[in-house]
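Lab meeting, item 3. Inverse folding demo.
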């Protein structure tokens, strides 16, 4: 593949490994995609699969995996820390090689139309694919999640989807589809079980409350580990990277008398975003070279 689009669907199930295996198998057997990595989080009850495909095949692959997720995941029975509106909650398309952002916008819109028409799942567009200025930010699309959207999608004009009927799929909900640059999902775990501390730190470091630019953050409980987490999305790592985000969280944690337990990267990360000399690097949990995007693409090309 010379022209490459990355797609990073987030699914609302992180507790059943067989579901992630089925989703991965659906992509790998479609013949249209190459899976680069998976991440499953039982506390968030959320999984992330990273795959790449050519621009003319990526929509087929995306629709295939969204269809399987709709069959396997029922949001009416879903409980987890992470907010969500759909079985496939978000479906972002990212230009990697010889593909422009406008092309990814067109891909996102095509995927949305097909998912709404073929699967009966209403779609909202965000980031560069947004059709409305108030939907550029993903959090504005998601708002209070599936249950709240189910109550208002038919009656509130502001909550109506960009494509599809103003009616949630009974079990699969809705989907947010985007076109965006690389996003780094970077989490810092804290040596405390007090969720108010994680939320205070998230408030202190995120952009919307006066913190670092291009940084989104929430505080979550990790019940299986008896600790809490500051979960961050870095939407422009060239401006605010992992080193700056970690330093801000560490400073806020020290002011609250809390120590850092470890950090993690969810999904893949571009080589240029990884600073091996930074303070956060020795604290990375389960790090391997397979988390580097370019390494994964190179490995797949060698075996193709």
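The presenter then showed the designed sequence:
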């Amino acid at each position: 593949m010379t022209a490459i689009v990355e797609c990073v669907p987030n699914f609302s199930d992180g507790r059943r490994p067989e579901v992630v295996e089925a989703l991965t198998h659906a992509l790998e057997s479609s013949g249209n995609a190459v899976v680069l990595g998976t991440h499953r989080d039982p506390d968030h009850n959320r999984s992330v699969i990273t795959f790449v495909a050519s621009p003319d095949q990526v929509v087929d692959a995306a629709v295939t995996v969204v269809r399987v997720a709709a069959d396997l995941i029922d949001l009416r029975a879903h409980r987890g820390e992470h907010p969500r509106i759909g079985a496939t909650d978000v479906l972002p398309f990212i230009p990697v090689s010889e593909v422009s952002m406008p092309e990814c916008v067109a891909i996102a819109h095509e995927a949305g139309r097909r998912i709404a028409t073929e699967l009966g799942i209403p779609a909202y567009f965000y980031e560069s694919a947004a059709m409305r200025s108030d939907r550029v930010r993903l959090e504005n699309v998601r708002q209070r999640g599936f249950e709240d959207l189910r109550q208002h999608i038919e009656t509130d004009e502001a909550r109506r989807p960009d494509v599809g009927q103003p009616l949630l799929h009974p079990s699969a909900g809705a989907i947010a589809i985007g076109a965006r640059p690389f996003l780094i999902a970077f989490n810092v775990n804290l040596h405390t079980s007090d969720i108010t501390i994680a939320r205070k730190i998230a408030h202190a470091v995120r952009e919307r409350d006066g913190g670092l630019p291009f940084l989104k953050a929430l505080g979550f409980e990790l019940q299986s580990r008896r600790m809490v987490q500051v979960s961050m999305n870095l939407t422009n790592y060239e401006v605010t990277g992992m080193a700056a985000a970690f330093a801000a969280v560490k400073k806020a944690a020290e002011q609250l008398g809390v120590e850092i337990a470890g950090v993690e990267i969810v999904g893949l990360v571009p080589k240029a975003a990884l600073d091996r000399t930074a303070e956060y690097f020795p604290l990375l949990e389960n790090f391997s070279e397979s988390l580097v995007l370019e390494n994964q693409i190179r490995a797949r090309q060698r075996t193709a």
